[in-house]
Amino acid sequence: MELKLFFGAFFTFLALINPIQKVFVVFSLQENYSRPELHRIVDKASITAIWVLLLFLFLGEAILGYLFNLKIYAFQITCGVVLFYNGFVGLQKGAFLTIDKNTRIEDIVTVPIAIPMIAGPATITAVVTMPAVYGRWMTIAAVVTALLLNWVIMRNAGRIGKILVKFNMMMPLIRIIALIVAAIGLQMILSGIEQYVLQIHGSAVASLAAGAVPPIN
Q1: Which residues contact 95 (CB under 8 A, 6 or more apart)?
Q2: What is the Cα Rg of the chain in Å?
Q3: Where are the transmembrane segments (predicted)?
Q4: What DSSP string runs through 150-175?
Q5: 3-state secondary structure at position 36
């Protein structure tokens, strides 16, 4: 049963992290950076992403609720909009990341590669909400395992990208993944709206019930 829960959480995070998208990103950077530099980018971005996700996993509700007074549904809707926009850009341009030749490694490691490409809106929302379903330690194990697999795939993006180019699969796959990313973003928006409507409905019912209770003399 625990193994089934682990794989359920693991595949959820793997889908949200979307390693195939990262192959396109790292492969596109080959024109501007050497292989050691690309490995450095991947390593630093992965370490940054795991710290961000673990921070939100342990302190997400406190950060959103107490520090910023944000509801989970508001965070879902906002993150969904960002994700939908990223997918839409990928569909239009056929690329998830374009950079200038003079861009330094430090300028792209944290943003946009670590955040939001690895530790993205959907993944952050998941680490905040999923411990209630899978448990904290199960969620941690799933997140770390998914990030390790993503790291391995990103490290080998050059080889994977060459195979995709050889079989003329790169551009079609980029647009398919972009469509999936946009669809995930739209689903997050709809889920956030649904949670908002349910909360408003619940508050209205509670108010009516309270008003129906006769005063105590």
Answers
A1: 24, 28, 174
A2: 20
A3: 6-27, 48-68, 74-96, 108-128, 134-153, 173-190
A4: HHHHHHTHHHHHHHHHHTT-HHHHHH
A5: helix
Measured CA to CA in angstroms, residue 150 lies from 26, 133, 157 at distances of 12, 23, 10
Q: Are 135 and 57 in contact (CB under 8 A)?
A: no
Inter-residue contact 57 to 139 (CB < 8 Å): yes
Model confidence pLDDT, tens digit, residues 33-76: 899 999 999 999 999 999 999 999 988 877 777 777 778 788 77
Tokens at 199, concatenated? 């909360």
State the Cα–Cα distance between residues 109 and 101, nearest whole angstrom.
Answer: 15
| DSSP-derived secondary structure letter, 214 | P
CA distances from residue 28 to 101, 148, 162, 184 in whole angstroms, order as listed? 12, 21, 11, 23
pLDDT digits over 73-117, tens only? 887 788 788 888 888 888 888 776 666 666 677 778 888 888 878
Q: Coil, strand, or helix at residue 41?
A: helix
Cα dihedral across residues 191, 11, 110, 180: positive or negative? negative
Rounded to an integer, what distance in angstroms lies between the CA atom of residue 129 and that of residue 120?
Answer: 14
